[in-house]
């Protein structure tokens, strides 16, 4: 990055970044310096004007990434817009000023922005399915916040312990399959039967196994400490 | 006190105890019988607890999966093997991963928009940021009165300024009008230029720019549209026009 740009007036940078981005769009070449400098000011100086300019300059690009790949999951304008916002929020929160030096070029920054778009989209897909699962259990709650990647306030270690315990209570593979797909993946008995017709020729087989396990687990002594 | 009522239920009905659709006679019994009511309560809190603790507990986090799709070499050999093995067995992660691989393969610039097979170059008009609209002394603001124009509706390309104006015609329709001018202040004739109003790729209406460099679409229902302006040397695209 050339030194002189660090003294440039922000309005000039914004115009220049837009102009260069347009050039890239039309002739496939551009000078990245002004856009890179905008990112630097936004992240290192936490400069709000620079940050807004970055949003204005790149939100369509982010929307294009998301829309292009997630149409199977999200079609509503509100969902897409909220994913675009989540992407920028994630980007902003995950690069503290002292980390900016890890990025050597505009390409690297935009690559990371895309990574944030991918992660935010995946997170949203999971939370949406989790929400459906809770609704089915009559446990309707509000969607966990965007920061809450693990979809609940439970920490990862506690969840892993719980899963380890549950697995000790399962008697055979059939039980493991039913419980894993029911609770870990959030599937319905019918989906489980369809995916494993050899193992479960009838959906009633899934219901039977599930009932046996639930009956055992809810009565088990070891469950007490989680049930409180 | 014991009650064996729950044991008499079929597996399917038993499963419904944890969801909303419980048959009336079962519901009736549960409401009457304290023992069964407690049993069902316990069953429900267990399933809710299990869902909360276990949902995707064995899956790589969204961050991990995205990074793996982007740059697997960021992970140790051992971690890579672990994630790959998980992807082979977990249908949910597998489809997320495929989505991510596709996204990570997309370019870092917007692709040329809506190409209809003509050789005209396409320029995307940007929404002019509010701060920049103030120091503009070009015709449209003056002509129409800056106070009447919402700032967000000024678009620009390198050479052209486009001002869009939306007015409600009836309960269900709007008129969308536009004004074109060249940014360097030179007299450029836009008269006769065609403007297309598109939605989902198809042209809904075409208007012709008049001698005052304006165009208008009437009877536009609320929705999201694209505008295409066929200038002599380029097609100008406004990717998103919200009519609401
Ligand atoms: Zn009873
Ligand atoms: Zn998984």
- How far is the first residue's CA from the last residue's CA of chain B? 63 Å
Order of helices and strands of chain A: HHHHHHHHHH
Strand content of chain A: under 5%
How would you sum up the global shape of chain B? Answer: elongated
Radius of gyration of chain B: 30 Å
Largest interface: A-B, 74 and 60 residues
Shape of chain A: elongated
Low-confidence sequence ranges of chain A: 139-151
Secondary-structure element order of chain B, N to C: HHHHHHHEEHHEEEEEEEE
Rg of chain A, alpha carbons: 24 Å
Overall average pLDDT of chain A: 84
Q: Which residues of chain B sit in consecutive blocks of at least 5 with pLDDT less than 50?
A: 114-120, 132-152
Give a count of the beta strands of chain B, DSSP E runs of length 2 or more.
Answer: 10
Tell me what the structure shows:
The complex is a heterodimer of chains A (228) and B (244). In chain A, helix 2 (33-44) crosses helix 3 and helix 7 (173-184) crosses helix 9 (203-219). Chain A is an all-alpha fold. Chain A is 68% helix and 0% strand. Chain A has ten helices and no strands. Chain A is elongated. With 244 residues, chain B is α+β, with helices and mostly antiparallel strands. Chain B has a five-stranded mixed sheet, with no helix packed on it. In chain B, strands 2-3-4-5-8 form a five-stranded antiparallel sheet. The N and C termini of chain B lie far apart (63 Å). Residues 114-120 and 132-152 of chain B have low confidence and may be disordered. At the A-B interface, helix 1, helix 3, helix 5, helix 6 and helix 9 of A face helix 2, helix 4, helix 5, helix 7 and strand 1 of B.
Write the layout of secondary structure elements.
The complex is a heterodimer of chains A (228) and B (244).
Chain A: H1 10-27, H2 33-44, H3 48-70, H4 77-94, H5 106-136, H6 156-168, H7 173-184, H8 189-195, H9 203-219, H10 224-227
Helix pairs in contact in A: 1-2, 1-3, 2-3, 3-4, 3-5, 4-5, 7-9, 8-9
Chain B: H1 5-8, H2 11-16, H3 24-32, H4 34-54, H5 62-70, H6 77-89, H7 91-104, E1 121-124, E2 126-127, H8 130-134, H9 139-144, E3 154-156, E4 160-168, E5 174-182, E6 194-199, E7 202-208, E8 214-220, E9 223-230, E10 234-243
The structure holds zinc ion (2 copies).
């Amino acid at each position: 990055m050339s030194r002189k740009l660090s003294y440039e007036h922000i309005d000039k940078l914004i115009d220049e970044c837009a102009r260069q981005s347009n050039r890239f769009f039309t002739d496939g070449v551009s000078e990245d310096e002004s856009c890179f400098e905008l990112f630097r000011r936004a992240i290192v100086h936490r400069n709000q004007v620079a940050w807004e300019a970055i949003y204005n300059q790149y939100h369509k690009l982010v929307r294009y990434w998301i829309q292009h790949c997630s149409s199977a999951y999200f079609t509503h304008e509100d969902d897409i817009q909220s994913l675009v916002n989540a992407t920028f929020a994630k980007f902003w929160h995950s690069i503290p000023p002292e980390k900016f030096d890890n990025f050597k070029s505009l390409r690297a920054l935009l690559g990371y922005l895309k990574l944030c778009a991918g992660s935010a989209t995946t997170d949203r897909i999971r939370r949406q399915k989790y929400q459906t699962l809770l609704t089915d259990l009559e446990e309707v709650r509000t969607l966990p916040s965007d920061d809450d990647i693990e979809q609940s306030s439970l920490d990862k270690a506690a969840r892993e312990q719980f899963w380890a315990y549950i697995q000790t209570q399962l008697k055979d593979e059939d039980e493991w399959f039913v419980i894993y797909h029911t609770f870990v993946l959030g599937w319905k008995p019918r989906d489980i039967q369809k995916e494993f017709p050899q193992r479960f020729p009838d959906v009633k087989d899934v219901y039977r196994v599930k009932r046996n396990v639930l009956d055992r687990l809810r009565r088990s002594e070891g469950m007490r400490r989680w049930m409180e | 006190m014991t009650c064996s009522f729950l044991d008499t239920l079929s597996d399917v009905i038993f499963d419904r105890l944890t969801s909303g659709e419980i048959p009336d006679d079962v519901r009736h019994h549960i409401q009457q019988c304290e023992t069964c009511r407690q049993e069902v309560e316990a069953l429900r809190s267990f399933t809710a607890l299990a869902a909360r603790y276990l949902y995707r507990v064995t899956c790589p986090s969204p961050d991990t999966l995205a990074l793996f799709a982007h740059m697997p070499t960021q992970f140790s050999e051992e971690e890579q093997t672990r994630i790959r093995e998980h992807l082979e067995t977990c249908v949910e992660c597998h489809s997320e991963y495929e989505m991510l691989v596709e996204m990570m393969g997309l370019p870092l610039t917007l692709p040329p928009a809506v190409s209809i097979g003509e050789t005209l170059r396409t320029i995307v008009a940007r929404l002019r940021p509010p701060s920049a609209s103030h120091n503009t002394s070009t015709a449209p603001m003056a002509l129409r009165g800056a106070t009447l124009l919402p700032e967000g509706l000024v678009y620009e390309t390198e050479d052209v300024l486009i001002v869009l104006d939306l007015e409600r015609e009836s309960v269900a329709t709007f008129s969308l009008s536009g004004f074109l001018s060249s940014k360097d202040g030179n007299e450029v004739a836009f008269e006769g230029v065609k403007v297309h109003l598109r939605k989902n790729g198809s042209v809904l209406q075409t208007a012709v720019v008049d001698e005052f460099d304006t165009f208008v679409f009437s009877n536009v229902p609320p929705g999201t549209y694209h505008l295409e302006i066929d200038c002599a040397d380029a097609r100008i695209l406004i990717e998103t026009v919200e009519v609401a």
